[in-house]
Amino acid sequence: MLNHGPICRRAVVVVCAIAMLGIGAVQDAQAEAAEFLVTDYGAEPDNEALDTAGIQAAIDACAEAGGGVVRIPEGRFLSGALHLRDNIRLVLDEDAVLEGSSDYQDYGGGDWTDALITGDGVQNIAIEGPGKIDGVDCENPDGEEGFRGPHAIYLTGASDISIRELTIVNAGNYAILCRESTDAEIVDVSIRGGHDGLHAQDCARFSIRDCDFRTGDDCFAGCDNVDFEIINCKINSSCNGFRLGCVNLVVEGCTIWGPGEYPHLVTTRDGGEGRTNMLSAFTHFAPEDRDPQLPSDNWLIKDCTIENVGFVYGYDFEGGLWQTGQPAKNLRFESIQATGIAEPVRVLGDEGRQFELTLDGVTIELEDGDGERPVLDLTRFGALNLHNVTLRNMGDAPVLRARDGDSVHMENVTAEPSNDAPFDFEDVGDVDSAEAG
């Protein structure tokens, strides 16, 4: 059995700490640089005229001066597409609102990559509050699913990124989209409504801390990522908390709960209020049409609470939605309390049985209802390791069902309520049980 939990934690923390030292130095240098106030370049608050040209002029002037601070003062500034440049620290003051245009054509050609703030290949950039970005739920009738509009922030090929103390509401598509970007710190960011919170593709060394994401779609999504940590965050969704593909992931000290406070906007298109049930806390993501190169591996989920969601974790390598491009491998849950759960932890692994699951100090309690459900339901797996685990269902079915696996190790595993046959094994090579019952 592979147990990479402590290694994963140390590796991600060290990598992120090194990255944060670089970001901190950039921020110190930017703080001492000249400031460029957008109102000095023609932007005027609190009217219906677009301020795109004035804000962009301030960004360009700052870049030409070698970098510094571009400041958006108190007031409502209406804008279309803005383009960041190297060494820019974009600051939204308290009570400043950067409000996106409601016309999707103000962001470019109506492409999927359109955004209110774009950074293409930029380095050493920051977007900071305490002000707000409002995407006004801008719709594009030719966009994804017939209505999705521009993202709030889109960074591609970027490095040394800081987004902090910022609120993003009503994004027309993703609140933050990052592709092929590295060394990012996202701290004390609140997201409300819209679609995905942070969607990362081909990214590395991201640290997300003290954030509060309450989204209509996935809070965290994307694949082919490496070295991510999500620490002390609040996570609420009408889709998934994590629909993610990542190698070396740490999620620690987070609160994950449903139902979603903001509806899944795709389900509002027929005039309804929209679906709000949270489908899962964690689910594997590796869609074949993206040609993913990396599995999900070396995950540590620690010191978290999970309430009122569908799945704590779901993975189906054979027929799961957007899960079949690469396998999931090693997953560890440690010190987890999960209550009001609708579905079992359900796994159907790959033919090579690469999936390994460890639960240590974990309680999972299914919601009242159908008693014919196990709490853990695994098929085609390498190893299942349970230490100090409590599994609760209605008592009409085994709490654990395991099939086609290499090994199961159980120590101090409790089934509640008591059941004459709490564990159901079929074609499992080795079962090692101590004080289980």
Low-pLDDT ranges: 1-21
Read across the widest sheet, the strand sequence of neighbours is: 21-23-25-27-29-28-26-24
Tell me the overall shape: elongated
Number of helices: 2
Please estimate the helix content: under 10%
Q: What class do helices, strands and sheet pairing give? A: mainly beta
- Radius of gyration over alpha carbons? 23 Å
Mean pLDDT: 92
CATH domain topology of the largest domain: Pectate Lyase C-like
- Estimate nothing, just give the exact number of structural domains: 2
CATH class of the largest domain: Mainly Beta
Structure description:
The protein has 437 residues and is mostly beta strands. The chain folds into 2 domains: 5-35 and 153-434, Pectate Lyase C-like (3 Solenoid), CATH 2.160.20; 36-152, Pectate Lyase C-like (3 Solenoid), CATH 2.160.20. It is built from 2 helices and 31 strands. It has an 8-stranded parallel beta barrel. The longest helix has 28 residues, at 5-32. It starts with a helix and ends with a strand. Mean pLDDT is 92; it is low at 1-21.
Kindly list the characteristics that best describe this protein.
single chain; 437 residues; mainly beta; Pectate Lyase C-like; 2 domains; 8-stranded parallel β-barrel; disordered N terminus
Fold topology:
Blueprint: H1 5-32, E1 35-37, H2 52-64, E2 68-72, E3 75-79, E4 82-83, E5 88-92, E6 96-100, E7 115-120, E8 123-128, E9 132-134, E10 151-156, E11 159-164, E12 167-169, E13 176-179, E14 182-187, E15 190-192, E16 198-201, E17 204-209, E18 212-215, E19 220-231, E20 234-237, E21 240-252, E22 255-257, E23 280-284, E24 297-307, E25 311-316, E26 330-341, E27 345-348, E28 356-366, E29 376-392, E30 400-416, E31 423-434
